[in-house]
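Why do we care about 3D structure at all? Because function follows from shape, and shape follows, mostly, from sequence. That is the central idea of this module. The next example makes it concrete: a single protein chain, its amino acid sequence, and then its structure expressed as tokens.
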Amino acid sequence: MKSDQPTICTLSESLPASASSTDPHQMPPRSSENSVSLPHPAAILPRQTVLLFAIACGISVANIYYAHPLLDELALQFDLSASILGMVITVTQACYALGLFFLVPLGDRINRRRLVMVQMCLSVLSLLVVGLSGSHLMLFAGLGAVGLLAVVAQTLVAATARWSNPAERGRNVGLVTSGIVIGILLARTFAGIMTDIAGWRSVYLVSALLLAVITGMLYRAFPVIHEKESSTSYARLLLSTLQLYATMPLLRIRGMLALLIFGAFSTLWTALVLPLSSPPHDLNHTQIGAFGIAGIAGALAAARAGKLADRGYGQRTTGIALLLLILSWVMMLWLDVTLFALLAGIILLDLAVQAVHVTNQTMILTARPEAGSRLTGAYMIFYSIGSATGSFASTQLYAVYEWTGVCMLGAAFSIAAFVFWLVTRKYSDTTSNMGKVI
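And the structure:
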């Protein structure tokens, strides 16, 4: 029986030796740790598959953000104090960071298709645990597992970068990461609507069903690529991930930018439910979640950042985006005066964060495509630290200084990112066109 899955053979299996050495479309050889020659990337990752990856990433990552607009409901259900509420998000982000280091690098060692399928199936079970939790300990355990396994999205990002035509790598990575950001933003809308209709538990139970469906679709559509699995030990693989921090200044610089911009991002989206659900606004969960839809406009607009990075404009894109990020907090400071200012600020913030994020990943993955999974995990650890820090600090500051304190924190993250970029831009990796200063 013929399989529905596209099967890709190595060049050594499909071409004579003379042809394999002269094919102008051949990808650069990978390292000896996972040595294999691939055919033309366009044959490996068609556009419709990239789109499916983006949808799968969005659904997977959304799972760790459902709790943001549900903090007040969770506080009532499990009798959690305001100071503990931030831990709901922090636990998820901390476990996500663990997954980035311990799970994502496996994509450079074992079959990516098998790795993705296992993680997504376990994610379905984790969502069921959260949705059926009867105590705050069970809730935290389930959310931790959800965060740990949501890193499957980063495995898909690394696969996209590895299997894309170099001329289209930035565009494809931009599309997939846009799916992630849109998933994060729609998570709030989805969670708000489902909570108003059927309670907060329905959010996680319905999400488990959706993830099971997308897992089945991926199983049929995921390219079957015959890459030789590495014989490198797991411990050595993790060590090589740590070595990337020492050997790649570009990773350190772009990673620190990720920490700061996602600190600002998480500051907004963790604390936003608190003033909007209180007087004088008194918005319900559906109305609060609708603000995530506004952010999608910014995320979609930023998808072009990958194309600009492909053309060598990564530094210019970063500088402009960081200035917009600072401006967004000035606008959102006027939340109590008009919600239109908040709306405009959200669009600017999501545009800026996504533009820098796409540029970061395009620059890093272009520099070392053969280490895509390890690079993605190493980079996203910065993201996770920033998100966890912003989530925890924003709720603490809101309890004392309310919305003004939250805006000051977000602005501090944003200004620090811009200053850091100004100081370090001359140290960009000039060996790659993606890192040249423009």
